[in-house]
Amino acid sequence: EANSMLDLEPPVHTRLRTLVNRAFVSRQVERLRARVEALANELIDRFEPGKAVDLLPAFAAPLPITIIAEMLGVPVEMGPQLLDWSHQMVAMYMHGRTRAIEETANRAAREFADFLRGYVTERRRNPGDDLLSLLISAQEDGERLSEDEMVSSAILLLNAGHEATVHQTGNAVRSILMQGGDVSRFFGSPEATAATVEECLRFDAPLHMFARYAYQEIEVAPGIVVQPGETIGLLLGMANHDPRAFADPLAFRPDRADQKNVSFGAGIHFCIGAPLARLELQVSLKTLFERHPKLHLAEEARFRDTYHFHGLETLAVGF
Ligand code: HEM
Q: Which pLDDT tens digit goes with each residue over 104-116?
């Protein structure tokens, strides 16, 4: 984590972010649209007719991990192992962390880093058209990136690249189904689909809190002064429901004029993966609801008893 851009400040943060960001600008990400659509269709093809399917393992989880593994140039068959490492590492940010959880997370981080170091060596010999090769060539050109920074960036992308997206996919399907009626009204045009996804992000965000530190004394609200070094818990999920910022905040209204959700954060650390996450959500939700317009909950969707990540335990649906 010492090299994770999420927790770094300029100038190191700027240097790392600029390099990684090359692969995530909208123009690059747009090239993945057809692949995301094909993958969504493949996953839907595997649903067994007449049976309820839990969309989290069957649809929401495999899609983002496959895409980010392909982008990085890591073998897709490694998906389940990457997920295991990632789950063990992000357990560090959950409430009620124990020594055993910390040790498991540390072990996972070491194994994950060792795997990537081996992979970087392999990619140095055989560069490809992937993000890891791009980072290696940046390093070889100007020494702008140490090997530790490269490994940390890859781990951050693999972890961040799917945990939040999985939960957002589940939360979005549930939010849409809760509206009742014909779901095709949410996906009538690319603009409508994009607006639906933004409203899903606002309505039920997958990350409810990000902690940051104050660098200088600041009065955040009348009488509420934060001192340098104090932690601020930024309640993203709550900000998205602030009645002073959103008219009728508890209503799901993709056509709202005041859409400005903060689910991807704000400022210099604003989510690098936002264009990718938006594309994945737009394509996967549209494909799912177009293929199965009668999709419905087979049982009540249950939220996981966690804080920080806000997502479902199961999402059993019939179609
Ligand atoms: C719905 C899905 C996602 C949500 C809700 C989300 C949310 C966030 C949030 C809240 C932050 C912190 C922003 C801040 O501190 O102001 C963040 C940072 C970040 N996210 Fe995402 N994210 C998602 C998907 C992704 C994806 C798909 C990737 C990459 C493939 C990604 C990569 C990152 C990275 C690298 C950072 C750190 C950026 C920095 O520190 O400069 N995220 N994300």
A: 999 999 999 999 9
